[in-house]
Amino acid sequence: MAHTAALGGSRCFIRRSGGQCVTMAGTCRMLRAKPKGVHKCHHGEDAGAVCSDPPEVRLVNGSNRCSGRVEVLHNQRWGSVCDDNWDLDDAEVVCQQLGCGMAVAALPRAQFGMGHEPIWLDDVNCTGTEATLSECRARPWGESNCNHQEDASVVCQGLAQLRLVNGSSRCSGRVEVLRNQQWGTVCDNGWDLNDAEVVCQQMGCGVAVSAPGSAHFGPGSNHIWLGEVECTGAEVTLSECRSRMEEPINCHHGEDAGVVCSDPPALRLVNGSSLCAGRVEVLHEHQWGTVCDDSWDEEDATVVCRQLGCGTVVSAPGAAQFGKGRNAIWLDDVNCTGKEDTLLECLARPWGTHNCDHGEDASVVCSGYVTVRPPQPLPLLPLLVLIILPVLMLVCGALLYQRRRRMQNRSSNFPQGSVRMEELVVSDTYLLMPGEEQAAAKVAPAGDADNKRAQHSL
């Protein structure tokens, strides 16, 4: 509880910071006092002060005490924190205050369920360097314009700190966790990409590329702290996964697990008309920062557009065309060839090394999101032709085949020496059937005699 002293008509609020009692700025007037050593007192009148402890903080409804909905204790009552302006800087202070390592996520909208008690804090604005949440700027206690659907949450790295060793970068290597102030390895029994995915996410190293076992990055030398790790891939920290933690674990250091992460820096374009245009910002050490426009050109912008899935580059403006950033300037003298997949692959000065100000922030305008056109349906008429034509051909073929079979059957049924009716007509001349040939022969002489008589009379 806060203590006050009525001195000279003013109320002086006192709190403790870093183990010492200090006055809160702006709440006390300058108090008059006699010069040092001048007094009319004895030690029975020695003054004292009672300072309030920083309000207690806890995380509830998470998988462990280092993740969950943020609640603070005020007036002997727990209450939640509104997510207005809630970000990683605020979460960082909570994690440090709880001794839970670094902040991994600052989640809004009651991700760990809605609280039922008061909403004590709103518009919290920490720089990330404060020792306790009470040192951050915020509205007065209990003043908010929120409901419990806006309760803020935090996920911290956890009590078990994590590192990757013996790899080519901080995002690859043998997995080690810190327990009891001592680093130890993870057994590769059941170790797979789902487990590696959680490690990469916890380390801020992009997505998992591989999950090598068998001490791929060399054997460890201390404890084997975890075995039979079983993550779904959706966890935020390795401590949230099922695992065997009790020693002895049936492993040796020839089975130490490893991880290789992609390590693309988080990237965004801000202050533009869409997500594909704006000031370039990258995430490093849990803080967004800008890119200096020294040497910034369309090759660099091409990589940004490709990494964001925003099509092709339209322009690569500099001179803070989309407004000035306010945080760190993370990259300078970026030099891409235009063929890289991520900005991380381009040459640049070391992180945070630059000779720029925010008036030189680089920007990008991309053509827009790349969309895959769905296959167009075939027109109806060609589709019908494609379906009906083979059917018609099949039917016609069957009919022709049946006709030929009938004709063959009819031919086989005629008596020997007979011919079909079709064979009786050849070039309009009728052929006589075999039985009629003799009758024709008998008629022929009479016809010839008549012809002779006609000619004689002439």
UniProtKB/TrEMBL annotation:
One of its GO terms (molecular function) is serine-type endopeptidase activity. SMART domains: SR. Pfam families: SRCR. It comes from the Eukaryota. PANTHER family: SRCR DOMAIN-CONTAINING PROTEIN. Interacts with LGALS1 and laminin. This is Soluble scavenger receptor cysteine-rich domain-containing protein SSC5D. It comes from Buteo japonicus.
